[in-house]
Write a structure and sequence with these properties.
globular; disordered N terminus; alpha/beta; 15 strands; 3-stranded mixed sheet
Length: about 500
Amino acid sequence: MQKKNRQNSAHFNPFNMSGVFPKEFLFATATSAYQIEGAWNEDGKGESMWDRITHTKPHMVENQDNADVACDSYHLYKEDVKFMKDAGFNIYRFSISWTRILPNGEITHINQKGVDYYHNLIDELIKNNIQPMVTMYHWDLPQKLQDIGGWANPLIVDYIEDYADLLFQLYGDKVKWWITINEPFRVAEGYEVDLFAPALNLRSSIMYIVMHHTLKAHGRIFQLYNKKYRSKQNGKLSICLDCNHFEGKTKSKEDVEAANRATQFQLDIFTHPIYSNEGGYLKIVRDMVDEISKREGRKRSKLPAFTDEEIQSLKGANDFFALISYTTILRTPKFSQYSNALIKPTGAFHDDINAAGSFDPQWPSGKVHWLKVVPYGLRELLKYIKKTCNNPPVFIVENGYGDAGELNDKDRISYHREYLREVLNAMNNQQCNVIGYTAFSLLDNFEWFSGYGVRFGIVHVDFTDEKKKRTPKSSYSFFKQLIQSRTISASQ
């Protein structure tokens, strides 16, 4: 019965499979610096923690791939911009490599050639009527800062504030869309497990500390912009949050509660400090972690507390909601009773949540094992954000489909088409305030620990070719037609 209900939900569409996007709706495409730029040590760039991982622990990456050259967008950025212009994209979301600007992570050494590269890229975008959306931090922390603890060191808040201040000075007159930190939840996971850099696999309370520091950093950067730059530059800032839609594996109370906990600990832990009237962490999260900490014999909670000043700096600290979401995950308790989770205390964040994940076997899947195609889940997540965050303007800044790199990528087209229909559904039937949608990625690129074995691009890159030949895929034509017509019809 549960599977039948999910299937019906997935196929519900009041548009009769058609719909029109409003003229002000923004279509974007995206990349990140480490995944496409290459030139890893060229023109004064410093070493990032991803450089260190791929060079010292190559076995962690599929086929021992690295991004030393990647798409070579450091040299071929004009070609990339031409693809965006020809397709008609309104916005290009890209990230700045911290170590290309500040090789050792600190403002004591500014690399002018790195500064010039991003000026050239931004100018090329603007010349072609494409708005730049800049992500300040997309996982490539300077290795010099990782050596002193990275995001687990409270000083990281000072370092990234200095870096952000420099970026506003350099590019703020031209950049009107800013994202401070990409996916802080995954940033923190890189310290607890080995799925993300720095892949420390500490299995301790460190995730809470890292998430706390990312929130403090975002609040500081937002207030810095308000005080020094907003009146002159008039830009928009956000922190980029990723969350999939979670639902109970069954309709049992235990499974529904597990799904709720997963959402509270991945999304609400970041949104409540920003969007609630009272500020600070969600009470149910605060109380739960405090109680678990006591049971583990700790003298203080694993979840740090904000100062009154920090609470105020975070309240309202988003001009738009930058959302990443790909799929839906079913949740059920990891332990038969929640109290049993503490028989052998681990201190680990994911054990505290007590919400094991799985997928409905009926859900379609591509080459990426975790990416099941569940379009209705995006609609449900948008409805949840509307309800819990006072219906903020939501820009979906990343969504996409991974395959083996086919040029005739029909599955990618189907994925984006069905997810976009659910976006329209949420906008027109639930009055969700969605302002934009981003296809990730513009190019096939280095997909982190999956290397080049998984392809997300709407433009194919031949990595065996010295010139990194680019070839538009069928999905590129799909977006070009969609942007021109602003319509998703039954025939597409």
